[in-house]
Amino acid sequence: MATSPVLSRRTLGTELRRLREAAGVAVSRAAEELDCSVSKISRIETGLSTPRRPEIDTLLRLYSAPDAREELVQLAGEGKQAAWYDSYGDLLAPGSTLHRFIGLEAGASMLRQFSSGAVPGLLQTERYARAVITASQPTVSGEALETMIRMRLERKSVLRREPDPLRVAALVDESVLRRPASGAGVMREQIQHLSEIVEDGSSPIEVRVLPFSIGLHGLLGGGFQILSFDHGESDVIFFEGQDGGGLQEKADIVQTHSDRLDAAWKQALDGRELLSFLREVADTHVE
Predict the structure, then answer these.
(1) Which Pfam families match (predicted)?
(2) Does 196 lie in the same domain as 279?
(3) How many structural domains comprise the chain?
(4) How far does Cα 124 stand from its chain's mean position?
(5) pLDDT digits (tens, 9 = 90+) for 87-101
(6) CB proximity list for 141: less than 8 A, separation 6 or greater
C-alpha cells in the first residue's frame, strides 16, 4: 500500500480530529491540555504539523482512546521521514500547496485529471517539459531551470512504484495538442509519447482527448487533478495555476468536479479513434 510522509501526516491528523470530535472535546480544550495555541491543534489535524509522542499520549488520554496509540505513533514516525521532494526545498517550501500536493500524489493510488493548458506533467517528455517551463517562467534559466526540469521528471517515479504504481486517468483538451511547443520536433515527439502510452496495454496510464467537436462542456473552468487513496482517506482536488494552484478537500467541491470529469470522460476519444486522431495532429506540427 502506497504512502508518503505528507499522506501519513494527513491520515494522523484526520484520525486525531475524528477522535476529538467523537469524545466531544473542543479544539480550545485540546489546546489547553497541550498548553499550545488553537492554531497548532488545527495544523496537527490538517496534517501540516506532526505531534510528538508525548503530545499524542496527552491527546489520547483526553479523548479516552488509548488503543489508538500504536497506529498514531507509527503514522507520526512516517510523517517525519524524508522524501525525494524534500531535496527541492528551494522550489517546494514545506507546507506549501505544491509541496502538499506532490507529497499526497506520492502516496495516492489514483490520479484523475483534466488538462486544458499543457500536457499533464506525469506524461511530459523531457524536451516538452523544458519548453513548458521556459514558456511559463521566462525569467528562470541556468541551474534553476535544470532543477525545475529534474523535479518534474522525478515526479514520474510514482508511475514505477512497486508493487502498486500510481494509476492515472488523464483527460486532455484538444487545444493542448494543437498548440505548438518551442523547439524542432518537440510537439511531434510529445504526441508520439502519448500514442505509445495509448498503445501500451500494461501502462498504469489511460489517456483520452476531449475534441473540439463536442462543443461546450462542463470543464471550461480550467484544469484540475483529483487524488484518491487506499487508506480510507477522502479524495482531494488540486486546481492548477501558474502561481502554485490551490488544494481543496471539501467533499462537495471534489464530488462536483469528479462528476463533471466523469461526464466529459465518456465524451472523449479513446482507443483506435484516439490513435488515429493523434497521428493526424502530429502531422500538423511542421519540423
Answers:
(1) DUF5753 (PF19054), HTH_31 (PF13560)
(2) yes
(3) 2
(4) 15
(5) 998 888 888 899 999
(6) none
